[in-house]
Structure to design on (268 residues):
């Protein structure tokens, strides 16, 4: 059943989705991955401080004299990006990403003005007929007030996302590394990724992102995707997310029924 990996129950017009208990609370949204790396490293620190080295095919990252690891949880105040912080000779903030991570961030706040301006211009017909609004109609045939779906009137197909190109350059650093200048480390962790060699905890990871050059190497440049979300009543059914470029493009072309609109054209 759509909306749940393990199905659900339908009764008349109601639908009840089943959710695995292990995917609720802190286990949701990928946080179990950061718990694994934090808990495994803590195990090796039980008898004293250790150096911790994250080993990836593209580079290594070393945290010296680590005494503890803290999980940050959902603390994103001030634009912080770290999921865990290794406490050693200094603080080592790390953003933990699964190998298949498809998002940099949900950007309803950061790009609130862009979403509002785009919505206004679609309503005014600035991008018609390639981009227009139609009322959202649910599966039971009811129209949801003030919620819209983007359509291409030329093709008659729904537009699955507006890709905003040429974002301000300063945004990239903030979106990826945050105000705490976190290092981004990719891995879907298992206990087999951790080993102790003398006084060094060795952690096998998939890739390490420390600067914008690393971002470009792996085609992970942040791209703003404004798409339909019927739960976003405040924005008329639009949601802003920032995704890696490689998740939206194949061989230089957009996937799905998306359209590109330059940032300046929306905000002018």
């Amino acid at each position: 059943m759509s909306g749940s990996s393990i199905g659900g129950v339908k009764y008349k017009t109601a639908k009840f989705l089943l959710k695995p208990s292990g995917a609720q609370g802190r286990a949701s949204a990928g946080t179990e991955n950061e718990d694994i790396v934090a808990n495994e490293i803590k195990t090796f620190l039980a008898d004293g401080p250790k150096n911790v080295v994250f080993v990836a095919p593209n580079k290594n990252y070393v945290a010296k004299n680590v005494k503890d690891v803290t999980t940050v949880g959902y603390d994103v105040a001030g634009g912080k990006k770290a999921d865990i912080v290794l406490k050693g000779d200094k603080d080592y903030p790390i953003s933990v990403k699964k190998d298949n991570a498809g998002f940099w961030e949900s950007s309803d706040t950061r790009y609130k003005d862009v979403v509002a301006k785009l919505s206004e211009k679609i309503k005014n017909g600035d991008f018609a007929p390639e981009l227009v609004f139609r009322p959202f109609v649910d599966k039971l045939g009811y129209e949801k007030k003030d919620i819209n779906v983007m359509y291409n009137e030329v093709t008659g197909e729904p537009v699955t996302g507006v890709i905003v190109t040429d974002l301000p350059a300063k945004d990239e650093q903030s979106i990826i590394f945050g105000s705490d200048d976190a290092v981004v480390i990719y891995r879907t962790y298992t206990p087999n990724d951790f080993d102790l060699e003398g006084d060094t905890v060795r952690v096998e990871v998939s890739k390490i992102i420390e600067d914008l050059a690393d971002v470009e190497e792996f085609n992970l440049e942040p791209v703003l995707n404004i798409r339909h979300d019927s739960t976003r009543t405040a924005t008329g059914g639009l949601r802003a997310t920032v995704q890696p470029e490689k998740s939206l493009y194949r061989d230089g072309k957009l996937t799905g029924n998306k359209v590109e609109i330059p940032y300046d054209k929306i905000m002018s």
User: Anything to note?
Assistant: The helical segments are 31-44, 112-123, 169-177, 212-217, 263-267. The CA atoms of residues 9 and 15 lie 6 Å apart.
